[in-house]
Design goal:
- This protein is α/β, with parallel strands linked by helices.
- It has twelve helices and nine strands.
- The protein is globular, with a radius of gyration of 18 Å.
C-alpha cells in the first residue's frame, strides 16, 4: 500500500493563514499526476510552525480531498510523547491511512527511550506507523537493531529513512525483515535506495515534479533502473537546488514559478536568496518543467 512516489506536501499560506483552497487543488493535481500517496504536515508541511488546530485542519482537509483515491500518511511526530499520541488519535479519527512519526528531536532520548516512545504511539491507535529517522535534524539516530525491535510490533510497518546511508537499507532488511517498508526520505539518493531494497520515496521534489518522480519510482519497482536513472539525471540539478537552503523553502519557490502555490513561508524561515532562486530556475529548466 505504501510505495512509489509520495509527496511530502507543502502547506500553502496566503497572508499568514492556511490557504485551504490551494491545498485542495494540490491534492487533485497530485492524483492526476500519478502520485502514489500524500504525506501532509511533515517537516515539509511546516509542522513546527503550525498550531495544533492548523495541523489537524490540514490532515482533515487532505483526507477529505483525497477521498480514498490514494493513501494519506499523516504527520504525527513530536518530541512530546503525549502530544504525538494525540496527533495520532486525531489522524485515525478523521480517516488517515497511516501516520508518520519522527524520532523525538532536541531532547535526545536513548535507544530505549525511542522504543518506549514509539511503543506508546503504536498502542494508542490502530493506524500503521511509519518511523521517520532523520538524525541530521532530530540529533538522534534510531539504530537498525532498535528498529528491528520496534518492527516486531504489528502496526510499526516501515521507515522513512533520511540518513543518506544506503547501506542502512540492507542493515534494516536484516533486522526488520524483507517485508518491512523502507521509503527514502532523501530525493538525491532515492534511486540507489530502491536498488538496495527500498520501495519508494516520501519526496520533497515531488511537490513540483510528481509525474516524473512517479515514473521513476514505477521504473525502479519494475526493475527498469536504466529508465529510472534517466529521470534521476534530469532531476538531479533540481534536487540539489531545492536543498541549497531549507528544502521546503526551495520547493515552495519552485512551485510558485509554476503557479502552483505561493512561496510564502513562516518565520523563522525566510524566502530564498537571489543566488538560490537562479539555481532553482536552472533546475526547473534542466528537468523540462519550465522554459
Amino acid at each position: 500500500m505504501f510505495k512509489g512516489s509520495m509527496p511530502a506536501l507543502v502547506t500553502p499560506f496566503r497572508n499568514g493563514e492556511l490557504d485551504l483552497d490551494t491545498l485542495k487543488k494540490l491534492v487533485e493535481w497530485h492524483i492526476g499526476e500519478g502520485s502514489n500517496g500524500l504525506v501532509p504536515v511533515g517537516t515539509t508541511g511546516e509542522s513546527p510552525t503550525l498550531s495544533h488546530r492548523e495541523h489537524e485542519t490540514v490532515v482533515e482537509e487532505v483526507v477529505k480531498a483525497a477521498a480514498g483515491r490514494l493513501p494519506v500518511i499523516a504527520g504525527a511526530g513530536s518530541n512530546n510523547t503525549t502530544e504525538a499520541m494525540r496527533l495520532a488519535q486525531h489522524a485515525e479519527k478523521v480517516g488517515a491511512d497511516a501516520i508518520l512519526v519522527v524520532t523525538p528531536y532536541y531532547n535526545k532520548p536513548t535507544q530505549s527511550g525511542l522504543i518506549a516512545h514509539f511503543t506508546a504511539i503504536h498502542d494508542c491507535c490502530e493506524l500503521p506507523v511509519i518511523i521517520y529517522n532523520i538524525p541530521g535534524r532530530s540529533v538522534v539516530d534510531m539504530k537498525p537493531d532498535t528498529m528491528g525491535r520496534l518492527a516486531e510490533l504489528p502496526r510499526i510497518v516501515g521507515v522513512k529513512d533520511a540518513t543518506g546511508d544506503l547501506a542502512r537499507v540492507c542493515d534494516q532488511r536484516m533486522t526488520c525483515g524483507a517485508d518491512f517498508i523502507q521509503l527514502s526520505g532523501e530525493d538525491a539518493t532515492a534511486h540507489g535506495f530502491n536498488a538496495q531494497g527500498g520501495t519508494g520515496c516520501i519526496s520533497v521534489t515531488a511537490n513540483v515534479a510528481p509525474k516524473m518522480l512517479s515514473e521513476m519510482q514505477a521504473s525502479c519497482l519494475s526493475g527498469n533502473y536504466g529508465r529510472a536513472l534517466e529521470i534521476q539525471d534530469r532531476l538531479m540539478p533540481l534536487h540539489k537546488a531545492i536543498f541549497t537552503e531549507p528544502g521546503l523553502v526551495g520547493v515552495k519557490y519552485a512551485m510558485s514559478r509554476l503557479d502552483l502555490c505561493s512561496e510564502e513561508v513562516r518565520l523563522p524561515l525566510t524566502g530564498l536568496s537571489d543566488e538560490t532562486r537562479v539555481l532553482v530556475d536552472d533546475g526547473l529548466r534542466h528537468a523540462g518543467l519550465m522554459n
